[in-house]
Design brief:
122 residues; Arc Repressor Mutant, subunit A; 2 domains
């Protein structure tokens, strides 16, 4: 648990990754603050801060006396946000470079398809 980002952010991302991957389906309970703090050997307040980030984003909600649960629409919301981030980080720069090279959108599609085919061929 140390990639240079704050630990609470890493905890939030770890739970969000589980939601996006389907490990925590909508309506299911996520591990408790106590469980996560014991597992990672960190302060429960740090875990709580990470969990609260997900509550603020509407991905988790608290059921009094029961714990934290994945909110309806959480996975779709995460995937939409990650798709938008992917487009900003990778697709826009790719298209800018393609324009600089004089490549059309069709040329880019062809290159992507050929590259994908190369990866699937043994």
């Amino acid at each position: 648990m140390d990639d240079g980002r704050p630990i609470f952010q890493q905890i939030a991302d770890q739970i969000a990754d589980g939601i996006a991957a389907g490990a925590y389906p909508e309506g299911t309970q996520v591990p408790s603050t106590t469980e996560l703090s014991a597992f990672h050997r960190i302060n429960p307040a740090t875990v709580g801060k990470g969990v609260n980030l997900l509550v603020e984003r509407g991905l988790l909600h608290k059921r009094r006396g029961l714990g934290m649960f994945v909110s309806d629409g959480a996975r779709a919301s995460l995937l939409a946000a990650r798709t938008a981030a992917f487009a900003r980080a990778y697709v826009r720069p790719l298209l800018a470079e393609a324009r600089a090279l004089g490549l059309s959108t069709d040329d880019v599609h062809k290159i992507v398809d050929e590259t994908a085919d190369e990866r699937s061929t043994p």
